[in-house]
Amino acid sequence: MELLIKKAQNGDKEAFISIINEHLQMMYKVAKTRLSSEEDIGDAIQETILSAYKSICVLKNTSYFKTWLIKILINKCNDIILKNKKVIYVEDYYESIENEDLLEAKVSIEENIVFNETLNSLDESYKTVIVLYYVSGFNTREISEILKEKEGTIKSRLSRARQKLKEIYLKSYNEENRNFKVGGSK
């Protein structure tokens, strides 16, 4: 990956395209936590790619490319949020699977629906940290750099988000068991 980044920094367009293609799915997932419409998500990703292409030569340490790219993306998402001035929600999973293989989607669709419904119940700051940490694989230091917040704040937010997710799942589990006992066999 670092060799491709170096090539891209030296003007190799194909290397840059390869790098972006490798990070595109992660970019989509992060943008999806911040923006509600597919058009806005597409705009944010497109603007991020253009901005990254124009300024990749400024990147000093190639090992920080992923963090650098997501930082640009979040800033572009924030610009769109400010421009639109609307409330942001994570949409249903169905829209995000339209481009995936339907057979793969059928296997995990129920789990993803439950995850997205649970994710919807969290504040935006918790959603962002959960997605960056668990879905995109960033560590707390990288997330603190991306969000321009102290690492301790990110760790606390991540801990609170985990606790809230646990409470939501336990509440859901208890309700299912109560319905099972009251309604008889299902």
From TrEMBL:
CDD domains: Sigma70_r4. Residues 20-86 form the RNA polymerase sigma-70 region domain. Keywords: Sigma factor, Transcription, Transcription regulation. The keyword Ligase does not apply. It comes from the Bacteria. Residues 117-165 form the RNA polymerase sigma factor 70 region 4 type domain. It holds the Pfam family Sigma70_r4_2. The keyword Transcription regulation applies. InterPro entries: RNA_pol_sigma-70-like, RNA_pol_sigma-70_dom, RNA_pol_sigma70_r2, RNA_pol_sigma70_r4_t2, RNA_pol_sigma_r2, RNA_pol_sigma_r3/r4-like, WH-like_DNA-bd_sf. One of its GO terms (biological process) is DNA-templated transcription initiation. One of its GO terms (molecular function) is DNA binding. NCBIfam families: sigma70-ECF (TIGR02937). Belongs to the sigma-70 factor family. ECF subfamily. This is RNA polymerase sigma factor. It comes from Clostridium sartagoforme.
